[in-house]
Specification:
The chain is mostly helical. The protein is built from 19 helices and no strands. The protein has one domain. Helix 3 runs antiparallel to helix 4. The model has no long low-confidence stretch (mean pLDDT 78).
Length: 484
């Protein structure tokens, strides 16, 4: 069973490495090619579309995944019902949201004082359709524990996005071309995802068999708290960008978005781990107790992200300057604030989805919405006075509150050895402190991308040596990590 989990993590992790590598290259390319105003307008549009996509998804895919994980193998016709009903509901909600976007595109552009937004939102209609179908496919494949296929469509999306966006921008289509490149990636990967679902569900989804009313109600009922959680996610993750665009300007959006995107890329290991282990909390096939799975996940996330957080705080300025240029240097201060955010996010990745599979989506949704509204309120208070730094602080503060609530809910469901876990977590700070002291002196030598990488490698080596010496990690664990 441990080997199976490791194999799934490896597949998802490799997939996310490729996907994140593609996204990283795209981020650097767009920042180097577009002006801060163009970059900001593009990602203001993407934030608006992502917000719309949350309502289009309506929590249906994750609800379906929960019931597929729970009932998989019990009745073939029941699996067929789950997929039929969830896909129909998803298509319906997506159609409604896309119609609203189309009708309101000029009014939205007027609200933000950006006429160019109307054209971008028009391209955004197929963006919402296919991005919603891609997320639905990933969720359903996760419910089937088909991590390999879920990873494949994620990689397909990111690689095609990279190639399409670069091609269209170089041909002179700028932000419009970039957004259409996103649509191409979503289109092909979502169709591929639906194909994989139909292939796994070889029992024949398309038939005259009418789904049981029972499962329809179950999916809708459980989708509601997940949808509320997702709405809270949109408020927490995207509305801050929209507020900055409304109160400040597209350039401010570009600095804020850049800082947040860099941190998002660093969440890769926790994202892969969380996506892989979440179905195991409710799966009947899991031989490891949920308490053991969660305890190891939370300790390993802390081991990984405490040094990443402290290192990022120190090297943020040369990172932004060398990768994106002088124009984007204001993003360095935002990145410093977000360096603290990454620890809370790593804990959320291994906790949040697991609560959905354990049937605690309602409790999670209430905490998400509460902290999301707090974030929005803090943004309106802090942004007029402190600009994007105020928005960054609001996001970090509310994310830690939300992470603590999620962990407390998880601990009410599963019983871990708290004293042992706290001791293991406390140890993680010692090698990170020594590493940070060394990095403060080394960072002055980071005058090129090559030297920046050397500084990162030396700092990582210092952390590894100290961690081995104090017994925090073992050489066997490093070998296993290398195998993943």
């Amino acid at each position: 069973m441990v080997g199976s989990i490791t194999s799934r993590i490896r597949i998802e992790f490799i997939g996310r490495i490729i996907a994140t590598g593609s996204s990283s290259l795209l981020l650097v390319f767009l920042a180097r090619t577009l002006s801060p105003d163009e970059y900001g307008t593009l990602f203001l549009t993407i934030s608006l579309l992502t917000f719309s996509e949350i309502f289009a998804r309506a929590g249906i895919g994750k609800s379906a995944a929960r019931y597929l994980s729970e009932f998989r193998g019990e009745a073939i016709s029941l699996e067929a019902d789950i997929i039929k009903v969830s896909l129909l509901f998803t298509l319906s909600t997506t159609g409604i949201m896309c119609l609203l976007l189309y009708l309101l595109r000029f009014r939205i552009s007027m609200w933000f004082g950006e006429p160019y937004l109307a054209d971008l939102i028009l391209i955004g209609v197929p963006y919402v359709i296919f991005s919603t179908l891609l997320k639905y496919s990933r969720s359903v494949l996760q419910g089937y524990e088909s991590i390999s296929n879920a990873a494949k469509i994620n990689v397909t999306n990111k690689v095609l996005r990279l190639l399409s966006v670069i091609s269209l921008v170089l041909f002179g289509y700028e932000a419009l071309g970039a957004l259409f490149g996103y649509v191409i990636g979503f289109f092909i990967s979502s169709i591929t995802g639906i194909y994989y679902i139909l292939k796994i569900a070889s029992f024949g989804i398309i038939s005259e068999h009418q789904p049981k009313e029972d499962i329809s109600k179950k999916i809708l009922k459980y989708a509601l708290p997940i949808s509320i959680t997702s709405t809270g996610y949109a408020l927490d993750k995207k509305v801050d960008t929209i507020i900055i665009g409304y109160l400040l300007n597209p350039a401010a959006v570009s600095f804020y978005t850049l800082g947040k995107q860099i941190v998002t890329f660093l969440e890769l290991p926790a994202q892969a781990l969380g996506f892989t282990i979440s179905p195991l909390y409710s799966s009947e096939d899991s031989e490891l107790p949920p308490s053991k799975i969660y305890e190891e996940a939370i300790v390993n996330s802390i081991y990984i992200y405490v040094p990443i957080s402290s290192g990022l705080l120190i090297i943020s300025e040369p990172t932004v300057l060398l990768l994106f240029g002088q124009e984007y240097l204001p993003a360095a201060d935002i990145l410093k604030v977000f360096s603290f955010y990454i620890i809370a996010q790593s804990l959320l990745h291994i906790t949040g989805d697991g609560l959905d599979f354990l049937g605690r989506a309602k409790a999670r949704s209430l905490s998400r919405v509460g902290t999301a509204f707090l974030n929005v309120g803090l943004n309106f208070v802090l942004v007029p006075y402190f600009g994007v730094i105020g928005a960054s602080f609001a996001t970090v503060f509310t994310t830690y509150i939300y992470a603590c609530i999620n962990i407390s809910i998880m601990l009410s469901e599963i019983d871990i050895n708290k004293i042992k876990t706290i001791k293991r977590i406390a140890i993680a700070f010692f090698p990170s402190i020594i590493m940070s002291i060394a990095t403060v002196y080394l960072v002055d030598f980071a005058n090129s991308i090559g030297m920046l990488l050397v500084v990162i490698l030396i700092s990582s080596g210092i952390w590894t040596i100290i961690s081995l010496q104090i017994g925090m990690i073992s050489s066997e664990e490093i070998k296993r990590l290398a195998e993943i």
